[in-house]
């Protein structure tokens, strides 16, 4: 049972920054970047931030679902977190590049 709790806690802690950015940076005047230090030249910051915050919220909720799988089976939870981490970051990066082209 301890392993399941640790697995779920790791997934929840991994999801928190994405959920924070998704919920609290939506109305920011600074564009949300994928990597810190990116020089972004965005024309319509409001719409760009709405799309990026939605993307981060979806990823955060997917990670929470994967974390809840840890309570059913630790191995399934770990594998789903691993797959969501690798595949999810790749898909977020692709979407980020699309938004940069759209709003730049």
Describe this structure in words.
Helices cover 78% and strands 0% of the residues. The chain is elongated, with a radius of gyration of 15 Å. It is an all-alpha fold. It has three helices and no strands.
Give the topology, please.
Blueprint: H1 2-24, H2 45-72, H3 74-103
Total number of β-strand segments?
Answer: 0
Counted by DSSP, the helix tally is 3
Q: In one word, what is the shape?
A: elongated
Outline the biggest β-sheet.
Answer: none
pLDDT under 50 segments (min length 5)?
Answer: none
Averaged pLDDT: 90
Strand content: under 5%
SSE order:
HHH
Using the CA coordinates, give the radius of gyration.
15 Å
Q: What is the terminal-to-terminal distance?
A: 49 Å
Structural class: mainly alpha
Portion of residues within helices: over 70%
């Amino acid at each position: 049972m301890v392993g399941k709790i640790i697995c779920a806690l790791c997934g929840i802690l991994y999801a928190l920054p994405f959920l924070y950015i998704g919920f609290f940076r939506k109305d920011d005047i600074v564009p949300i970047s994928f990597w810190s230090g990116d020089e972004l030249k965005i024309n319509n910051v409001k719409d760009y931030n709405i799309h990026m915050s939605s993307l981060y919220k979806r990823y955060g909720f997917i990670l929470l679902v994967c974390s809840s799988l840890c309570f059913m089976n630790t191995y399934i939870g770990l594998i789903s977190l691993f797959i969501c981490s690798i595949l999810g970051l790749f898909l977020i990066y692709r979407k980020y590049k699309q938004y940069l082209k759209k709003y730049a």
